[in-house]
Amino acid sequence: MDRSEIPDRGGRSPRHPAGIAAPRTGRAAAPPVVRTWILPMVIVIAIAVFFCTAFYVIDAIYFGAGLHGPLGLFEHYLSFDAELITDALPALGMTIVAVLGIVLTVVAIIVQLSSERYTSVAIMFLREPVHIAVISFYIVASLCAVWLSVTLRPDFVPRSLLLLVMILTSLGLAVMLPYFAYTFWFLEPGNIIDRLRRHTTQLTGRGLAAASTEEAHKLQGRVLEQMEEITDIANNSIEGRDKIIAGRAIDALCDFTVHYIATKPREDLAWYHLSPELRANPDFVAMDRELLAELEARRLWVEWKTLHEFLRVYHEALESMGDIDSQVAIDTRYLAEAGAVHRETDLIRMVFRFLNSYLRAAIDRRIEQTADAVLLQYRMLIEELLRRDLCDEACEGVRFLKFYGYLAFEDELSAITETVAYDIASLCRYAHSERLGCDLAMLRELLALDAEEASHSHRHYRGLRGVRKAQIRLGVYYLSEGEEQRAQLIADDMADMSEDSRATLREELMTQAPPHFWEIVDRGRNLHYLTDSERAHLDRFFQRVGAPGP
Description:
The protein is mainly alpha-helical. Among the domains are: 33-186, no CATH class; 189-365, no CATH class. 71% of the residues lie in helices and 0% in strands. The chain is built from 25 helices and no strands. α15 (322-341) runs antiparallel to α16 (345-364), α19 packs antiparallel against α20 and α19 packs parallel to α21. The two termini are 38 Å apart.
């Protein structure tokens, strides 16, 4: 697989070769003007003109004193009677005013309903140029109709003004349909989220370019509000079991932060210093002073805030929507990968802390499926770090994996421990195949995973056996690559195993099993599958177990 195309899920946008997610702007882009505005209006007006003209022509020909020709009919239509037109003008003025009332009523109800779920909708609506333009048009048309009503004289009809009001009233009636359609589009949850993301990006850009500290600090508070608004949408959607909207909100935070990481200047700016308003925010005010100073010195407050919002969503969905937790882990990985592109090791270590928090929460609540999803993203992140020659950070991540693997082992969550062993073994194999020189340190962490003495419970035994299988698979790989010493390290670690245990493990690994797991899981692959070429070295490896090394 082309590693520049990192697997995604949940409708995520494709990845750039640089490893940065492309912001998705297609959904929130305004609908085409011709198709959604002009065309419906033209169709409605054309139908009305056709029928009105057709029946007027019939009336003019048969009951109009012999009027003939288009010009004669048009002049006859415009020959307004000053005495009779006064009866039509009040109705004309009331029509456009009534339409304005209908539009305001319908829009107000829709916006109010949306505001109960998304608190910033009303402000966004009032700032949207399209809404301002349409409401302004209706107000102007209503004023023209009012002013027209006082211009009539017994011997004078202002034809031009009257025609203008007629045209404005006709357009006002015709624009109702596309305007209502646009309003419903505007208030779609996905579009609200994308609009919040774009606005947050704009505010951040202004903050980075701010000339004064006061302006930068003011923009910091507005950015925090926008990010928390997106998080509230995600949490409210989780409560309502609306997975699609919750996922879009999480992705919006991710896309915003990935773009921020890629574009933020590296020099010291006022934007990176925490304002008093920022320090008073609940997410910052409770932080240890030393940690807060470290966050400011490393210029990572935006990234930390995003990750903290991810953690809030993760806890909200932990026991109800595992797919959302998996998506949170995916987007968390994307942030670290964006940091790896720019060698921001501090950001990578910060992401490790949040991934560790995800694992701790899942293990404490014994939710193995969520823990497995987080471990998969953890392993994929470490692989990306290895690809970018960040071996120290990758080894640090492996140490964390080992710690939480043993934590699960103590809690008798054998499946998690077995998965951790498989992931570390896979990372050792990848690092060795790429000749990165750090697989030996990872191997020692794998051997330490089952170093503590386990109890005699059946679940502990299963976890220990799964770890041993992962170690054996790695030892077989080393033998196939001619790495006798590394294979011997693994064999020596297994020297205290009984003969029966060795025979059982050998039999299970020698049994022909399908390469892919027989249930639907994200990993897909059978963790302990050996190819025929690997199976050929299995007996050689077991011969080394208990035998002195070379």
